[in-house]
């Protein structure tokens, strides 16, 4: 579990070389981004969806953390998440898909499933997160029904 916590924390503390000159610039302090779980037809509940971002000079780093629970009767081997980023006009700015290899027995929960992404545009004003596919221990895959 600690490897999920350390890597994003290290990423959030880096300096990035400036494009012009030999100076470094600091990405600054993290700002919380409103994040909302979206309910799907899959037997997984998102108990918490947390995001923050750091930005400077047109470069944005967004960090995610999720808490999930297997509400089904079969053990889970991996989850695929979709993060939808919204801009200041409440329009979809981008959609990101991430896969987490997470072992979840029926009724079990996992905390702080961390995912990080870079973005070249302005920070999102809000993010929605959803589980869109489940891979079970037997290798079978179930996808969320289209809305």
- Beta-strand proportion: over 45%
For the record, what CATH class applies? Mainly Beta
What integer is the average pLDDT? 79
User: What characteristic shape results from the CA principal axes?
Assistant: elongated
Helical stretch count? 1
Explain this structure:
- By secondary structure, the chain is mainly beta.
- It has a single domain (2-12, 30-143), classed as Immunoglobulin-like (Sandwich), CATH 2.60.40.
- 7% of the residues lie in helices and 59% in strands.
- The protein is built from one helix and ten strands.
- It has one helix at residues 2-12, and strands at residues 15-17, 24-26, 31-37, 44-56, 59-70, 76-86, 92-104, 109-119, 126-136, 141-143.
- Strands 3, 4, 5, 6, 7, 8, 9 and 10 form an eight-stranded mixed sheet that branches. A two-stranded antiparallel sheet has the order 1-2.
- A hairpin with a 4-residue loop joins β9 (126-136) and β10 (141-143).
- The longest helix has 11 residues, at 2-12.
What's a concise summary of this model?
The chain is mostly beta strands. It has one domain (2-12, 30-143): Immunoglobulin-like (Sandwich), CATH 2.60.40.
